[in-house]
Amino acid sequence: MENQVQPENITNQLLNVFNYAFVESAPYSFFVPKKEKYVAVHVTKKICTCLACTKQIEVKYHEAGVVYFSKERFEKQRAVYEKKGLPFLDEKDLQAEKEFIYQETGYCERCAPQLLLTGDVKQKIYNICQEIHKEDEILLVKAKVCMEEQLKKWLKTIPNSSQIKQYDLSNYNGLKDLVCAAILDDTTDVGNCLTSYKNKIGKMIADTEQLLRTMPDKWSIYAARSTAIYESMSDELYHEYTVVFPEENTIPQDFFINRVIEKIRIEMFLKQSRVSSVEQLMLEVGFETAWLDLLIDHIATFEK
Ligand SMILES: [Zn+2]
Fold first, then answer.
1. How is the chain split into domains, by residue range?
2. Cβ–Cβ < 8 Å for 40, 67
């Protein structure tokens, strides 16, 4: 588990690909925004309004000067404001950097699950991918619990120091080696976790691939976006000028917004390599310093 070089972090890569396919689709590019294409706006917060229950979620933005909206995105905001009967920014307001509230409509966390559970294949493909993504993330959590339980079980079988004499328990590496040996002593539960994950996602991936066959290159659906992550006010490209960040203390909540997803990116997400062996899974989980505490606490009981 230790002293091994990690060639890549599978779970991080999966998260990146998931975000690329379903969350922030604009590729990064560095350029200076031109006046013909962008509008500089002093945006202070976002209000997400649920189309079903009318609940409003307010997201305060971390303010760092003006943000550049692509003209297209700016015009979309104008349409939203008009629909709501709210006064929109005019040239003078823009010049004066008048505070602006970004209006988002979609579905809240509570309404989305019922409303988006439709027989509609377009939405269904996204829903399954979101489930796969959750499984990818939960696997690590479950494996970590199994590893910790195994350590606790193993410690119970060690009533005194005679069985662990070969480890130098006076230094960090010695303690760490012992924790790893204890966890590796029985990997049945971690293995079971992995098997059930593989069975579950194997079926979900196969189902999605089947559904994708008849789909066009791109289509629109409602996809979750956390209120706590950054956002680009330009759909084509993003860079430091177009990005807004929520304030650090923002509580993450999923808000489902209408967006376009692409078949090629979904396929990329499905084909991305996933954890396939117990060794890989343990490497992904990594080492928890809390495990050292469990060992140290146990050793303390010897000396009494
Ligand atoms: Zn709602």
1. 25-119+223-260
2. yes
